[in-house]
Design a protein that fits this description.
TIM Barrel, two-stranded antiparallel ribbon
Length: 299
């Protein structure tokens, strides 16, 4: 299978990247991050999450962030909306695309959202109905597709029915997430091969965390399987609170550098992306997690 000629990056830094940060981050800094990412040429940015601030305090100001960003025509500004209340709040904030998430692991589903996989999928039905009536597109996530902190290794056969269920209920794209970053390239290729038997490859995406340093290898494995959409996070922001030593999502800068080396077009300005990562890293008081940025002398 030949490599895709173009790749779309889904930038999850402002949401998945920041949601586990312990220190408060102002709405102004989040707005600046989203605007920087827009200026760098990202075509899809997950801006925030409409969930109870009791559970995810860092996402409490998502409506304010949506109100403050400079939205560019042709760019998708999305939000996570895991329940109907969250969807309604997102709609009120002017959000045109939302995401929902399920898990491939029963144990993770119970620990994370206190219900079974099947029950979590049932919770999405009213969201999907409301989204259809309002003309809002819905993207689906499946977490723990290659490993779970409670169940260990996850078989691709466990992932496929969950991805299929999300696709069948109306998710236009399903992102398969290696939440704890334990997967390898061989696992990734088999995952996409198995899931693609139930969901078309052009409606699948990869979401890889770099806990074991395998994220870029897994992105390349996805390319070999004909996958052309990948989630990434500027400066490698993020991490899973359930994975000891998790180092966050694969850095957007590193993925863009990989694609440039393969002759694959992303439409992203790498220098501007590095600058965006540096700025938010300074806000957080730590070095960027992008190896490309560090190699270029940015600390």
């Amino acid at each position: 299978m030949s490599l895709p000629k173009n790749v779309r990056l889904v930038e999850v830094g402002p949401r998945d990247g920041l949601q586990n940060e312990a220190q408060p981050i102002s709405a102004a800094d989040k707005i600046r991050l989203v605007d920087d990412l827009t200026d760098a040429g990202l075509g899809y940015i997950e801006v925030g999450s409409f969930v109870s601030p009791k559970w995810v305090p860092q996402m409490a100001g998502s409506a304010e962030v949506f109100a403050g960003i400079r939205q560019r025509e042709g760019v998708t500004y999305a939000a996570l909306a895991p329940n109907l209340r969250g969807f309604e709040d997102a709609l009120a904030a002017g959000v045109k695309e939302v995401a929902v998430f399920a898990a491939a692991s029963q144990a993770f589903s119970q620990r994370n959202i206190n219900c079974s996989i099947s029950d979590s999928l049932k919770r999405f039905e009213p969201i999907m109905d409301a989204a259809r009536s309002q003309g809002v597109r819905v993207r689906g996530y499946v977490s723990c597709v290659l490993g779970c902190p409670y169940e260990g290794r996850i078989r691709a056969e466990q992932v496929a029915p969950v991805a299929r269920a999300l696709h069948d209920m109306g998710c236009y794209e399903v992102s398969l997430g290696d939440t704890i970053g334990t997967g390898t390239a061989g696992d990734t290729r088999r995952l996409f091969e198995v899931v693609a038997a139930q969901v078309p490859r052009e409606q699948l995406a990869g979401h890889f965390h770099d806990t074991y340093g395998q994220a870029l290898a897994n992105v390349y494995a996805g390319l070999l399987e004909g996958i052309s959409v990948f989630d990434s996070s500027v400066a490698g922001l993020g991490g899973c609170p359930y994975a000891k030593g998790a180092t966050g999502n694969v850095a957007s800068e590193d993925v863009v550098y990989l694609m440039q080396g393969l002759g694959i077009e992303t439409g992203i300005d790498l220098d501007k992306l590095i600058a965006a990562g540096l700025r938010i890293s300074e806000v957080l008081g730590r070095a960027t997690g992008s190896r490309v940025a560090r190699a270029r002398g940015v600390r």
